[in-house]
Structure formats: C-alpha cells, structure tokens
Amino acid sequence: MSKIKSIILTFAIALTALISYVSSASDTQVMSQKQLLKHMAEPSSDVIVLDVRSKGEYEEGHIDGALNVSHTEIEDNLSLLANLNQYKDKTIVVHCRSGYRAGKAEAILTENGFTKLRHLEGDMNGWLKAELPTVK
User: Euclidean distance between the first and final Cα of the chain, in Å?
Assistant: First the structure.
C-alpha cells in the first residue's frame, strides 16, 4: 500500500511541475516576425534575439545578430559565459526550431527574473517558411 502512495505522490509532484512549466511558458507574449524585423531595423533597438537551438543548428543558419545559447545551457549562462543577466532590462525574443525548447528556456528565464520576454511567432520553422533572411 505504501508503494502505491509513493507512486501517486511522485506522479502528483511531476504533474504539478508540468502544470507550472506550461503555465509559465504560455504567459510569454508573442512577437511577430514583422515586429521583430521592424525592431531590428531601428538603430536604437534594445531587442535581443535569443536562439536556443543547438550550436550545430545555429551554424546551419540563424537570424542575423542572434545570440546562441542552447536551451540546455540557459541556467548555466545566466552569469557565466553568455552572461544573460546583462540583458534583464532588454526585450528578449526567444526562439528555437518549433517552440518546445524556447518554452523551456522562457520558463527558466522567467523564474530568474526576466520580465521582458517575447516568443518569436512561428520560431525558426516559420522564419524559414516566410523566406526571411538568415546568416551562417
């Protein structure tokens, strides 16, 4: 009987964590591709494009000027290599290939006090489908 209670408790904890993750990721506002292009064209823009795909994916083609920090390294890079904390007061537009990894990164950033997060509409798949420019 206690083994069943333990399994139920573990499941409840996992479910609570999943609900917390989904609700925090879904709170991120979406920025359209057109809005991002407009911001990028402004010389005084404070928008940071954060590509959370792998280094290999990034090197195959990315949005010009995007900062690449894999979603698996976001937490480690809050104060180390990429020093993401320096961008806390800036608008950060997060994207990956299709949205899942960006959602994970957004949840971590939100938990660490980032309040100006935006999710790129369509992520990289949408960017490529719209035939928008990329660099290698």
Answer: 58
Structure tokens, 33? 């591709």
- Assigned architecture for domain 28-129: 3-Layer(aba) Sandwich (3.40)
User: Per-residue pLDDT tens for 84-115?
Assistant: 888 988 999 999 999 999 999 999 999 999 99
Number of helices followed by number of strands (H, E) in the chain: 5, 5
Question: Can you read off the two tokens belonging to residue 38?
Answer: 């407009």
* Catalytic annotation, pick one of 96, 107, 109, 120: 96
What are 5-35's pLDDT values in tens digits? 666 656 555 444 444 444 444 589 999 999 9
Q: Break the chain into its structural domains and give their ranges.
A: 28-129
Reply yes or no on whether 94 is catalytic: no
What single letter denotes the amino acid at residue 106? E
The one-letter code for the residue type at 119 is H
Instruction: Kindly give, in sequence order, each residue whose CB lies less than 8 Å from that of residue 46, ignoring residues fewer than 6 positions away.
Output: 89, 90, 91
Q: For residues 124 and 128, give the distance between their C-alpha atoms in angstroms, rounded to a whole number.
A: 6
